[in-house]
């Protein structure tokens, strides 16, 4: 999963470490004198009185062990150094290009490289291990920042509202139907009872397909015939849930091309009729920037609250996963990680950071 991003991040840390280490200049006599450390405390004065000021960075730093005794040893060229723009510019440019190749959105690629540059340039470092650790932490932070999008607390929502009505939107083939089945299972495992609305009445196959999932899971399906009003199906499912005390209504919807005006009108009508608590866009991680484009279209038409990205298990690039939340300002709530009903996981930025820097 996300092998391409993982490789690029690791290469970036390596290249910056190498560049900064190799750019270290020989120490001058003046520099060596810095190794003396803070001035000795004059005798007779209480310690507190003397420490009126925090020592600055330079004087508070231990001399680098590589520098040997007093810095005059054979490895004395390994002195403290400030990272400059020149050290990182080429590497960051390469990183930006690599991110774009991995389908990371331009804005996100720029944000990560800019943030990394701000963290690094001007920073004083001593040893290559320190450079590498610091670069890695700065990169992790930049990545976590783009992934952290506030929004939906699903466990809290489902506790507050009964039935919780969730409408799923997205184009055909992204894994929407399978995802609805997975989400039904997720709620069932929490002891909650879902009902599914087969509101993709455009294709007879769609009603059948979601019906098969519902049967396998033992979930009640509300459906009408092909061509029926999708909003009416959704309305019936919500009425059923209210009457039967069910906890969650999961509404499947049609997914013709997102540019289809009728489709967007249809989505808007379902929204108007059932007033869902949550509209979730389902996108295929493998489609990269297309997934972001689709999400933006649905957001424009009906307003989405959250994202589920499918097929992350097969996604070597990782660009959509890294970018979509930041680009549309909505959180990813789940990720599909396989074809089975249990192959879904709640999305946490920390998890993704771990995958990328493992
Ligand atoms: P829909 O047309 O959007 O409803 O898509 P489907 O639910 O029919 O899924 C399309 C294909 O994607 C099916 O073969 C699913 O098994 C597969 N699929 C869905 N989610 C995932 C996932 O998270 N990982 C993988 N590897 N395949 C998935």
Automatic annotation (TrEMBL):
Q: Superkingdom of this entry's organism?
A: Archaea
Intracellular or extracellular location(s): Cell membrane; Cytoplasm
What assembly does the database describe for this protein? Part of the signal recognition particle protein translocation system, which is composed of SRP and FtsY.
Q: Ranges of Basic and acidic residues compositional bias?
A: 1-10, 26-53
Q: What does this protein do?
A: Involved in targeting and insertion of nascent membrane proteins into the cytoplasmic membrane. Acts as a receptor for the complex formed by the signal recognition particle (SRP) and the ribosome-nascent chain (RNC).
> Magnesium: present as a keyword of the record?
no
Say where the protein is mainly found. Answer: membrane
For this chain, the family text in UniProt reads: Belongs to the GTP-binding SRP family. FtsY subfamily.
Q: Name one GO cellular component term.
A: plasma membrane
Q: Which reaction does it catalyse?
A: GTP + H2O = GDP + phosphate + H(+)
Mind listing the GO molecular function terms for this protein? GTP binding; GTPase activity; signal recognition particle binding
- How is the protein disposed in the membrane? Peripheral membrane protein
- UniProt keyword list: Cell membrane, Cytoplasm, GTP-binding, Hydrolase, Membrane, Nucleotide-binding, Receptor
Map out region (Disordered) in residue numbers.
1-73
| Alphabetized PANTHER family for the sequence | SIGNAL RECOGNITION PARTICLE RECEPTOR SUBUNIT ALPHA (PTHR43134)
Protein name, entry field = Signal recognition particle receptor FtsY
Q: By which gene is this protein encoded?
A: ftsY
Whose protein is this, by species?
Methanothermobacter thermautotrophicus (strain ATCC 29096 / DSM 1053 / JCM 10044 / NBRC 100330 / Delta H)
